[in-house]
Amino acid sequence: MASGKENEKQVTAGSRFVKAAKIYGKENLGIILALLVLCIFLAVNPLTSSSFLTQKNVFNVLRQISTNLYLACGMTMVIILGGIDLSVGSIIALSGCVAAGCVSRYGLPLPVALLCGVLIGLIVGMFNGWVIAKTTIPPFIVTLATMNIAKGLAYVYTGGSPVRVVTKEWQFVGAGYIGPVPTPVCILALVLIITAIIMNKTKLGRHMYAVGGNAQAAEFSGISVARVKFLVHTYSGIMAGLAGIVLASRMYSGQPTAGDGAEMDAIAAVVVGGTSMAGGSGKIGGTIIGGLIIGVLNNGLNLMNVNSFWQYVVKGCVILLAVYLDYIRNKKSKL
Amino acid sequence: MAKILLEMKNITKTFPGVKALDNVNLKVEEGEIHALVGENGAGKSTLMNVLSGIYPYGSYEGDIIYDGEVCKFNKIKDSEEKGIVIIHQELALIPYMTIGENMFLGNERGPKFALDWNETYGKADELLKTVGLKESSRTLVKDIGVGKQQLVEIAKALAKKVRLLILDEPTSSLNESDSQALLDLLLQFKKEGMTSIIISHKLNEVSYVADKITVIRDGSTIETLDKKTDEITEDRIIKGMVGRDLTDRFPKRESQKLGEVLMEVKNWTVYHPLYTERKVVDNVNLNVRRGEVVGISGLMGAGRTELAMSIFGRSYGSNISGQLLIGGKEVHLHNVREAIKNKLAYVTEDRKGNGLILSNPIKINTTMANLDAVSSHTVIDKDKEYGVAVEYKEKLKTKCPTVEQNVGNLSGGNQQKVLLAKWMFADPDILILDEPTRGIDVGAKYEIYCIINQLVSEGKSVIMISSELPEVLGMCDRIYVMNEGQIVGELDRSEATQEVIMSYILKSSGKGA
Predict the structure, then answer these.
(1) B439/B382 same-domain check
(2) Domain count along chain B
(3) CA A56/CA B506 separation, integer angstroms
């Protein structure tokens, strides 16, 4: 009997890790393969083989994808709830400008300025969450509105021109290194760990999946759906604020045009990673691979000197292909 | 002997790891009503999905011989062209379209790319008359009741020039009179020469309407009973379905001593959440003791579910007034969390809608209402959770390969067990079970009754809301009869009969209206 086997389930740390890795591999088989194919192609292609696998380039790719993955962490949660957050791109602009302004206009110390940037994200996220939790206005509409509000405020605050900061310390967050590793990548590791723990280990994480899977059943099980929505959107806002300061730091300035379309890249990473737009299912592990695919692709196209206009076309095709492969695999496993 | 319209020969269908159908044979004569009965998960629906082409030719073994030729259906459209139409248990109508639009969906009237609305609605009205539905075909589907929607489905099938009509649990969501009307309609179609296959759990309906009954158990055909040659009784059918004689449909309960009153509701009045002037529950008083099963009987729409939900943390209704006493102390439950904290559980009648998360595994559903018990400092202990799920799976005899399985893949009876497990794990003292056996088969029903007995023997209180009178009579120590929002009678087990309960309802109906 199957149940007998279940009872004897022995767990050691090692076997558990192997098991988790196996499940992870199986769940994300399609996109992992896609990523590998992409990497192998770039590694053997004569145009890119000399530069692709160098330490510098690898860190470069990781640095480039890190801001997208911050957003994608929040976005994964939001999409699992069955919602969407369109405002993250604009939050990047607003938080970056405010953080830069804190230093250059008011002369505040750097940590305070950075904190202010993240705080901006937190506030917009809380506002999103509050409206979405308290009303039945669809998240798409609410965040579409805050997207415009935040973008507008960024322009108003800056008057349309970048807020420059040219101190060495300012660059640390976005362009600096901790040891050999770029700072944004270190932050990324931290963010991913925190997100994974929230989603997989905590009650909040479980509640997220429950609300996305069947909000009514969740409510009837004593879960506060409103609270879950509020917290998740707040988290997404924080992530966007974080991306804002990292990006502003890398560009030596807060720019009102920063983060344009960033929400779409984040959604792409999440969807390529296998999270269902219908809500209720999805894993942060998939999102990581999704973000990597998009990042490696961008990098490869640049190394190959592909015209940037064509890059959009290629990127779109790859997104469609990746999601299609996943769709086929799911369909097979259902039959 | 009449001509055989359909023969399914040695059908075998395997899903990964499970043999859903094992050499099933089915013969249906032209012009008969053939019933397909069996427990949940026995394979009835799978068999019909094979027949209608949902599982395409090649994904199963065996032959379908229809009207003398071997058929290889690849999609539903193929079988519909031959006149085989299946009406699924869950209605597939689009709420914001008119009846007429729904009826000709995918089968539109008119020249190639345009729609001929006159023909559509003219034809639709004609067909509605045939099925005896007095509605204009321009009415939106969302504005008519479930009973009428079922008739629209049948009219839709007729629009496709149906020869073999398959109905999967057509009466599961209908009330008594609508069910009767539907069955009579089938009998009338039979006179006109149509062949139908009906899948149903309601054995009284089956024996009323069917000429032949094929029993399926665990994916194999057990027997086919013929009305002409065999004596068909409900007990006879049940025997075939469960493979043993079910002498007693309700398990005996050890004669237990009733404890003190655990929950009491006084002068409970609830208004409709939207139409706030409408009273849904009207001045209800009831109580339940430790170790007691109290039934709430009544027709659909009597306000039973609304009463239960309003008690359960005000999850229904507006302007709720009255007193709720638990363990002798008055409590005010403002939301579901407080209700759970006060050891109250409400096991919903709508397990798919607000009971379970179908896309999540059994283990997650099991712990959903009491995550605190498997987590410390907000972090979930997954081993503990797994253990809990396995424990309840064994306790309730849930049939599933592992607790990692998604609830959506389970049969109705097993879903109900998971739902019960979820609330048992929340460790309540008082359980309100709303239609705990709706849409599940006899064997699973028996098991659920055993669970109820187990619960009360542990000193818990159970309030059982049920529309099935035999179940209420068989299981409850005391029965409240509810009608039009009011309690119109309270009966002890010894004095309750179906007739008494119905007479209470009928007598009170005059007064209220």
Answers:
(1) no
(2) 3
(3) 84
Instruction: List the Cα angle A189/A190/A195 in 5-degree steps.
Output: 100
Please give the Cα distance from A220 to B440 (Å, whole number).
22
Indicate the fold that domain A55-334 takes in CATH. Answer: ABC transporter involved in vitamin B12 uptake, BtuC (1.10.3470)
Which chain A residue has its CA at the smallest distance from B379's CA? Answer: A202
In sequence order, which residues have a C-beta less than 8 Å from that of residue A5 and are 6 or more positions away? none
Which residues 272-291 of A have a C-beta within 8 angstroms of B?
280-281
If asked whether residues B21 and B128 sit together in one domain, one would say yes
This model of the complex carries an ipTM of: 0.76
State both tokens at A252.
């030596």
B186/B154 same-domain check: yes
Please answer yes or no on whether A216 and B336 come within 8 Å at the CB atom: no
Pair B171, B284 in one domain: no
Would you call B357 and A217 a contact, using CB atoms and an 8 Å cutoff?
yes
Residues in chain B whose Cβ is within 8 Å of chain A:
15, 59, 313, 315, 335-337, 339-340, 346, 348, 353-360, 364, 368-369, 371-372, 375, 378-380, 383, 386, 390, 393-394, 401-403, 422
Residues B103 and B153 in one domain: yes
Q: What percent of chain A has pLDDT over 70?
A: 94
Give domain limits for chain A.
Answer: 55-334
For the cut 70, the answer to whether the pLDDT of residue B512 exceeds it is: no
Q: Where is average pLDDT lowest: A93-102, A280-289, B103-112?
A: B103-112
Out of B427, B458, B482, a domain closes at B427
pLDDT at B513 over 50: no
When the pLDDT of each residue in chain B is averaged and rounded to a whole number, the result is 86
- With CA atoms as reference, report the closest residue to A205 among A287, A118, A282: A282
Distance, CA of B354 to CA of A217 (rounded, Å): 4
Higher pLDDT, A151 or A24: A151
Are residue B400 and residue B374 in the same domain, yes or no? Answer: yes
Q: What single letter denotes the amino acid at residue B451? A: I
DSSP state at residue B55: S
Whether B359 and B336 share a structural domain: no
3-class SS string, chain A? CHHHHHHCCCCCHHHHHHHHHHHHHHHCHHHHHHHHHHHHHHHHCCCCHHHHCCHHHHHHHHHHHHHHHHHHHHHHHHHHCCCCCCCHHHHHHHHHHHHHHHHHCCCCCHHHHHHHHHHHHHHHHHHHHHHHHHCCCCHHHHHHHHHHHHHHHHHHHHCCCCEECCCHHHHHHHHCEECCEEHHHHHHHHHHHHHHHHHHHEHHHHHHHHHHHCHHHHHHCCCCHHHHHHHHHHHHHHHHHHHHHHHHHHCCEECCCCCCCHHHHHHHHHHHCCCCCCCCCCCHHHHHHHHHHHHHHHHHHHHCCCCHHHHHHHHHHHHHHHHHHHHHHHHHHHC
- Which of B378, B406, B427 corresponds to the end of one domain? B427
Q: CB-CB: which of A9, A204, A217 is closest to B355?
A: A217
Cα torsion through B345, B349, B350, B354, rounded to 10: -10
Range of the structural domain that residue B372 is part of: 352-427
Q: What is the pTM of this model?
A: 0.77
A222 part of contact set with chain B, CB < 8 Å: yes
**Which residues touch B473 (CB under 8 Å, ≥6 apart)?**
B479, B493, B496, B497, B498
Residue A136 at interface with chain B, using a CB cutoff of 8 Å: no
Residue in the block written with tokens 């339940």: B288
Which tokens in the block code for residue B241? 């379905």
- Is the CB of residue A161 less than 8 Å away from at least one CB of chain B? no
**Looking at the complex, does the CB of residue A203 fall below 8 Å from at least one CB of chain B?**
yes
Cα–Cα distance, A101 to A110 (Å, whole number): 11
Q: Single out the residue of A97, A87, A96, A32 nearest to residue A292, CA to CA.
A: A32
Q: Are residues B45 and B191 in the same domain?
A: yes
